[in-house]
Write a structure and sequence with these properties.
By secondary structure, the protein is of the alpha+beta class. The chain is built from eleven helices and seven strands. The model has no long low-confidence stretch (mean pLDDT 91).
């Protein structure tokens, strides 16, 4: 059976509009927003809010149909995740910092869909489908003493039985869009806290904390190396109270089948989000590669395909290797997203895509600066910015090392205790 690598027609139609936004709105503002960190990309937000609302409405309809057991009339698998991959890649080609400011539930939504009940999905996600003002969601997991080792989380959630509220105490750091989410009256942050420290990962639970909750404070907004249009916040919870029903899923530490739904929910969130981060990385890498190819062509340096490596110059070989690395990462990312659309587990593939894309694009953007020399390193061109933007893709949503470890465990069949 032949495999087609053509972009599906339904996705291609939407990409034309997305490409126009990336080139006409995002790219012209990229330098200014990079040099004025934390200024909101107002034009981008204004133009994307109605589109994101419509997408959220459709997603809510899909979730409701799935809950009712209704089968779609359309034959074959959906393309929801595949469409998001293409969209994230194109918007990141425009400017990844602005892309991260999309007015959407983003990671909070991924957690709510992965762990929340149907009633919770409707209640918390409805705000992203209605209203005149943009709304953001964020996820708070990382702590000063708990990065890749999620079992070390110290933020606690204690049930006050008199008021039937959860009381949260602790600090979270490196929360993408944490300030955006808490600045707006209808924003939310999904906070991972432990209801039982002695249980380790089994005690981890996700809680929806809404903007305006007393005891929730944005303590710091990071000054960063890249993605500077996006805010990365530290959030402190000091006796912050959230309703009992704002705990996503079951409050039980262990389920009847012995599973740890809380930790599995966190991992399911990453299975959905890591391909998106990989796609975002690829968009940055494509921007750098296309720019290098364009500048070389202006100097009369073409990239001849079909010739053996020994017949090429060092620069030509570098560009071909940049293309090969980018395409390899892209194919892995498409596979990870496609598996989700087919209703299949993609934990291995999601980590493969994330690890490959982060590493490849970090190298590609550094090589772009190297090839272009002093001008590539200067602020006259965006190449140096793309190099700075690229590195975060090898860090957040699980570092390259952690994702490589996950891949090894999945392939070799080892547990986290057996292979660390």
């Amino acid at each position: 059976m032949a495999i087609s690598f053509e972009t599906p027609e339904r996705i291609e139609q939407g990409l034309q509009m997305t490409g126009a936004l990336a080139q006409g709105v995002m790219r012209p503002e990229a330098r200014r927003l990079d040099e004025h960190e934390h200024q909101r990309p107002d034009d981008f937000i204004k133009m994307t809010w109605p589109v994101m609302q419509e997408q959220q409405k459709r997603q809510l309809e899909r979730l409701a149909k799935r809950e009712r057991g209704e089968v779609s009339e359309r034959k074959g698998p959906g393309i929801t995740n595949l469409n998001m991959i293409y969209t994230f890649e194109m918007l990141s080609w425009g400017d990844v910092g602005q892309m991260l400011c999309l007015p959407t539930a983003l990671l909070a939504g991924a957690a709510i869909e992965a762990v929340g009940t149907p009633a919770q999905q409707e209640r918390f996600l409805r705000r992203f489908a209605e209203g005149d003002e943009p709304v953001w969601g964020a996820m708070a997991m990382t702590e000063p003493g708990a990065g890749s080792d999620t079992s070390a989380i110290q933020t606690t959630a204690v049930l006050d039985e008199e008021t039937n509220e959860w009381v949260l105490n602790g600090e979270k750091i490196f929360c993408t869009n944490g300030k955006l989410a808490l600045d707006e009256s209808n924003g939310i942050v999904v906070v991972w806290a432990t209801v039982d420290r002695a249980a380790g990962r089994a005690g981890m639970k996700p809680f929806v904390v809404e903007a305006g909750t007393p005891g929730v404070t944005v303590d710091k907004v990071e000054i960063k190396h890249g993605i500077r249009a996006s805010d990365t916040a530290s959030i402190v919870f000091n006796d912050a109270r959230t309703p009992f029903d704002n705990l996503l899923g079951s409050p039980e530490v262990r389920q009847r089948d012995g599973s740890t739904k809380g930790f599995k929910g966190a991992m399911a969130t990453f299975d959905a989000s890591r391909p998106l981060i990989a796609a975002s990385a690829i968009g940055v890498g494509r921007a750098a590669l296309e720019f290098v190819t364009e500048k070389l062509a202006e100097e009369g340096i073409e990239i001849p395909y079909g010739l053996p490596y020994h017949a090429l110059s060092a620069v030509q070989r570098d560009v071909l290797e940049m293309e090969a690395q980018l395409k390899a990462a892209w194919l892995l990312t498409l596979r990870a997203a496609s598996l989700l659309d087919h209703g299949q587990h993609n934990s291995l593939e999601a980590s493969m895509a994330k690890a490959k894309a982060g590493k490849a694009v970090t190298w590609i953007t550094q090589k772009a600066v190297e090839i272009l020399g002093p001008l590539g390193y200067s602020r006259e061109w965006l190449v140096e910015k793309w190099m700075r933007d690229a590195k975060i893709n090898d860090i957040y949503e699980g570092t390259g090392q952690i994702n490589t470890l996950i891949v090894a465990r999945r392939i070799l069949g080892y547990s986290s205790r057996e292979l660390t």
